[in-house]
Amino acid sequence: MAGINKVILIGNVGKDPDMRVMTNGEQVANFSLATSMSWNDRQSGEKREKTEWHRCVAYRRIAEIIGQYVRKGSKLYIEGRLETRKWQDQSGVERYTTEIIVNEMQMLGTVQSNNRAPQQKPQRKQNARNYANQYARESDGDDFVDDNVPF
Fold this sequence. Notes:
This protein is mostly beta strands. It has two helices and six strands; from the N terminus they run E-E-E-E-H-E-E-H. The chain has one domain (7-38, 48-144): CATH 2.40.50.140. Helix content is 14%, strand content 44%. The longest helix has 11 residues, at 128-138. Residues 113-151 are annotated as: Disordered.
């Protein structure tokens, strides 16, 4: 049986993405995504927060979209897989880097282009999951009937 390697994150981009073009002409976007969790300390009752930084890499069309719309502070939903690569630093020492290879991305919040003027948010395709989520948000839950869900 094959294993599962899937990452789902919602977070904010730490700095403008680093855009490159590979030798075959395809675009690559490298960016860091911050996710935070907060909790109340049991002993002091004080609110605590921890931020994790994730290295993300996107290729082809997703990289093009990131290059056009994503900036420092952009809120993103991403899905991808973990991949660790080996490389040598300038002094010849082998290093390892674990990255998230992005295969799905949705922009959350305001979308801006390179010139930073607000743009219309791209339309997401309406699939069964989106339809069900929209229905759940619009419904108060009291009159929910399974027959209304399209799957």
